[in-house]
Amino acid sequence: MHHKFYLSLLLAVAVLFSSCTSDDSAPSIDYSIKSDDHLKILSQYDNGWIKEAKHVESEDLPIHEVTYHENGFIKSAKVYNFYQDRELYMEVRRDEQNRPLWSRYYTPEGDVWFETAYENGLVSEKIVYSELGTSIHTYTNGEITSIEFISTNGLDKSITSYDLETGTKNVKITKNSEVILEQEFNDQDDFGSGILTSNHAPKANPFNEPQNGYLTIGTSFKHSPIWQFNANPKDDVIGYRKYAGLHPPASKFAVQHAVNFEMYQSIIEQYPYTEDQVLILGYKENEGNAAIIDVSRDERLAIDAERLENPDLFALKYGDQYVNKIHYGKNLIVVGALRNIPTHVTGIEQVNKIAEKRMNDILSGSNLVSDHEMEILDKVWFEVKLFSTFKNQRNGIVLEDTDDYQEALDEFIAADPEIIQFEYAKFEHLVQ
Fold first, then answer.
1. Which of 7, 50, 369, 389 is least enclosed, having the fewest CB within 10 Å?
2. Distance between CA 290 and CA 261 in Å, rounded?
């Protein structure tokens, strides 16, 4: 009886040992990064991470071209339009600390549409080009201080200067080198303020203290981290300026947002493309909004008559649209991005699963990722970053653990609601 027991025990141990031996001898997962039909690696660092690469489709037409710093941050990137003839669409440059240096966005014809210069990681200047003229947006410590519009004839100009301390703005309009309007406004942008949408250049306000009504909404929306194929949060954010009848073009990014919306521009320039997918968590809160509700019929007719009498002069003074509604609230995005992921599908699946668990650990304080899994995740570049509409969070806060997330979230929650969108109406529809 004892003999049979020991035989059974030995058999069980033998089976267990055999099983362990079989697992140990199983083929190891390949975490290397190699060229394939869509990813062309031009050079790599000693650790195998990508130094230069491009993504292509059929006939080797480029989708993205990228160079990395050795630490995994983007050094340069070119993005080509997905929906037309693969013309160059966006180009960015960043330093080894992941701070932006400059960026350019292009028209389908290959001309620069708008370009941004940065200083110490903050935007210092944006220049927007169009057939009507050029507008130069100047910033101080990342805050807009003036916008100068120069028409194509070089004689017609407008300059809007913002006083950040008093919250006022001054608008000066020059036609044929003669000042035709100069006015100070109590608010930087208010109901009725005009804008030239082609160049995103603010103008004067033709209204005489339009009345508005505030409506409390008090709604919010939040979703858990979900995988997306690119870091394009246009569905999770509220564009800072929403123009009437103008929709983002069929392109990779909603670049109309990028001209005026520093948070959105920061996200798409840090993640201009993705090697596989990204984790996105979005939170929107609509605290309330206000809209113009009382402008007399006579005033509307007078403004429309001035517009019809001399449309070019009217556009120079007041633009083509005006602020009709202002939305107040908060907006927050968390991005978890992967780079230098392995080429083999098994390696990709494994890394993605660990990255998702890691992001949940950071956001919820759980402890789902084992030490062994962290060793695997360390083979790739993975970063979790929080962005919001508040100034010190626009360029993103790196989240290493739950304490980082809670600290950034507490600051976000404690902050007062702010303007998250100006909604515009067309002057031509002022009289219906």
1. 7
2. 20
Q: pLDDT tens across 293-309, in order?
A: 889 999 999 999 999 99
Q: Alpha helix locations (H) across 271-337? A: 297-309, 311-318
Burial class (CB in 10 A: 0-12, 13-18, 19+), 410: exposed
- 111 secondary structure, DSSP code: -
Pick 66 or 245 by higher pLDDT.
66
Burial label for 326, CB within 10 Å (0-12, 13-18, 19+), is buried
Residue 175 carries which side chain, given as an amino acid letter?
K
Q: Which residues contact 217 (CB under 8 A, 6 or more apart)?
A: 286, 287, 288, 289, 329
Cα distances from 130 to residues 98, 111, 144, 260, in angstroms, run 30, 10, 20, 16
Distance of CA 265 to the CA centre of its chain: 4
User: Is 90 within 8 Å of 106 (Cβ atoms)?
Assistant: yes
Q: Quick count: other Cβ atoms within 10 Å of Cβ 46?
A: 7
Residues 127, 107: Cα–Cα separation, whole Å: 14
* Spatial CA neighbour of 421 closest among 265, 257, 295: 257
HSE value, Cβ hemisphere, 13 Å, CA-based, for 277: 14
d(CA 157, CA 152): 10
Q: Which long-range contacts (CB under 8 A, 24 or more apart) does 55-60 make?
A: 55/273
3-state secondary structure at position 191:
coil
Euclidean distance between the first and the last CA atom of the chain, given in angstroms as a whole number = 102
Task: Name the band, by pLDDT with cuts 50, 70 and 90, for residue 63.
Answer: confident
Neighbours of 370 (CB within 10 A): 11
Is residue 398 helix, strand or coil? Answer: strand
Taking alpha carbons only, the member of 65, 326, 93, 301 closest to residue 193 is 326
Per the listing, tokens 């073009």 go with: 249
Q: Please answer whether residues 125 and 139 qualify as being in contact, where contact means their C-beta atoms are separated by less than 8 angstroms.
A: yes
Q: What tokens were used for 199?
A: 């160049």
pLDDT digits over 100-155, tens only? 999 999 988 889 999 999 999 999 999 999 999 999 999 999 999 999 999 999 99
Integer CA distances (angstroms), 370 to 170, 355, 373, 377, 381, in order: 58, 12, 5, 10, 18
